[in-house]
């Protein structure tokens, strides 16, 4: 947080590398839940996060609820920026169904984003979805439909 606030790019890179190395543990910390939306969005842009997308969605949901309470703003408002970086097309159809069910309670994820993930499944490719949202992260568990998404470059 401080590295971004003070424009310390070297420190930002070191912090991101640390987060990438132990993402599953970091997303469970209080420090993760205290990140700003801008910093969280930067973290979520990384392809090297060592956590599955479904776990990342849950971590962002928890972050959004904490931020919503602290900032006294609705969940969709505080989460608008980071949620754009969630890679929903990587989720299996059964996971998307569960996600939609949870989303009815807090409206964390815009309906358009969920619809785009379903469209990627229906068309059996990532067309209509930004290519960055179809790239598996380092910690993404393989799912059958991943072979239909457009190949990603490293």
From TrEMBL:
Residue ranges that the Swiss-Prot or TrEMBL entry lists as coiled coil: none
SMART domains: BACK
Domain BACK, chain residue ranges per copy: 1-100
Highest taxon of source: Eukaryota
UniProt feature, compositional bias: Basic residues: 134-154
Pfam hit, one: BACK
InterPro entries for this protein: BACK, BTBD19
Positions of region (Disordered): 128-154
PANTHER family: BTB/POZ DOMAIN-CONTAINING PROTEIN 19 (PTHR46965), BTB_POZ DOMAIN-CONTAINING PROTEIN 19 (PTHR46965:SF1)
Protein name: BTBDJ protein
Gene (UniProt): Btbd19_1
């Amino acid at each position: 947080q401080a590295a971004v606030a003070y424009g310390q790019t070297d420190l930002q890179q070191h912090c991101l590398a640390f987060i990438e190395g132990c993402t599953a543990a970091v997303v469970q910390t209080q420090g993760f839940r205290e990140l700003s939306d801008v910093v969280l969005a930067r973290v979520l842009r990384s392809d090297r996060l060592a956590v599955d997308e479904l776990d990342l969605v849950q971590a962002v949901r928890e972050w959004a609820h904490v931020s919503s309470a602290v900032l006294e703003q609705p969940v969709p408002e505080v989460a608008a920026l980071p949620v754009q970086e969630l890679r929903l097309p990587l989720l299996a159809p059964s996971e998307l169904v569960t996600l939609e069910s949870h989303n009815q309670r807090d409206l964390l994820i815009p309906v358009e984003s969920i619809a785009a993930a379903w469209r990627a499944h229906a068309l059996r490719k990532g067309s209509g979805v930004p290519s960055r949202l179809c790239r598996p992260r380092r910690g993404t568990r393989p799912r059958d439909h991943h072979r239909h998404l457009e190949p990603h470059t490293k």
